[in-house]
Amino acid sequence: MAVRSQSARTGLSPAVAAQVVLGAGFLAHLVVVEVLFAGAGAGKNSVLTVAKFFALHAASIMMLQLVLVARLPWLDRRIGMDRLTVWHRWTGFTLAWTVLTHATLVVLGYAVLYSMPVTATFLSLAGVIASLLGMCAAAIILAMAVASLRYARRRMRYETWHALHIGLYLAVLLALIHQGLEGTTFASSPAARAYWWTVWTLVLLAFLTGRIVLPIWRNAHHRFRVAAVEPESDDVVSVYVTGRHLHRLDARAGQFFIWRFPTHNGWWQANPFSLSAAPDGRTLRLTAKAVGTTSAGLRRLPVGAPAFLEGPYGAFTALHRTREATLLIAGGVGITPIRAMLEESTGPAVVLYRVHSMDDAVLLRELQWLAGERGAQLHVLAGRTGSGNPPFAPFEPANLRGLVPDIADRDVYVCGPPAMTDAVLRSLRELGVPRGQVHAERFSLA
Hints:
metal ion binding; flavoprotein; Elongation Factor Tu (Ef-tu), domain 3
């Protein structure tokens, strides 16, 4: 098995560099917007002037929203889809408030301008096609913001929420038509108009390339198919996928794909699974626990069945290493990317594998073999938290330091259930492990 050469990073971290590029680009765009607005942003009265100000910034936030979920490889490998998705979520709430403010000011502004009641003004604007399209876009954005609130989101199936979320693409289309019909602050200047629509074109191209063009091209080029299906236990299965020219697929240990098996559960069913083995240029492997109908049915996949893969995604890789030595911490099925990273590891490594019982230790034999091959230490931490006397608490600061005395001199990679991950991160802070040496992968993308 070939092991990819890796070394500790020096200088500015890839994550910080990507954040600087993304933030600087967005701020530079806002500066241009502010300058152009100052020169040609006056509305028919002061209220409508402020409404135009919020309209331009709502459109700019919408551009940022699309970039954050465009799944551009350069950004994703450095920042990670989980973090980009969190930013997308909070930017979405900012967009909703900005759109609501713009719409409210438009109605109030025209009510003042024509000395009409607010309700009559609203109905009058709804009779204008450009305004009506803007209202529809705003309604979709606000409805999606409400559906994304934690209270509502936790009571909704992921598939339902995802289907509703696709409605935002309709909102973007309606908003673009609304801007074109209404005219923008930039309508008075050919150069400004060219700038505005050039930025929109680049944003849409980036989104379409990352979300549609790249996945279609990769699948047409590699022709993924199921090579083998191997049960690991009563409720865990590994699926091997092969294809053409996989050595050209720039995937790394620790990353994940969004997997579709159309003959298994329909085209619309897609699940993110981490690679459970380091890519070797011949096969890709996922290992899944039966927690739903999709993953439970994977063991019935026939060899040769087609697979559609989106990815690779994720920043949970050795690209972000700052030290030669690593500590790999996994909980439950979070062992899959950790196992792949151990396979790719070349420096001193310690693996902590948290499970409720030894029967739950998936891929344990492989881990033991890899640990022997790599000269790594493997500790399986089995038991119920709080059980026994003294209480079993393997991730308390003192216990972590006892297991890994030089923990502050290692890069720490953590992947597991949210409660475990949070507990580990708290202990790492107490132990003084520098933030730049801590890398955490979250299970959920939404």
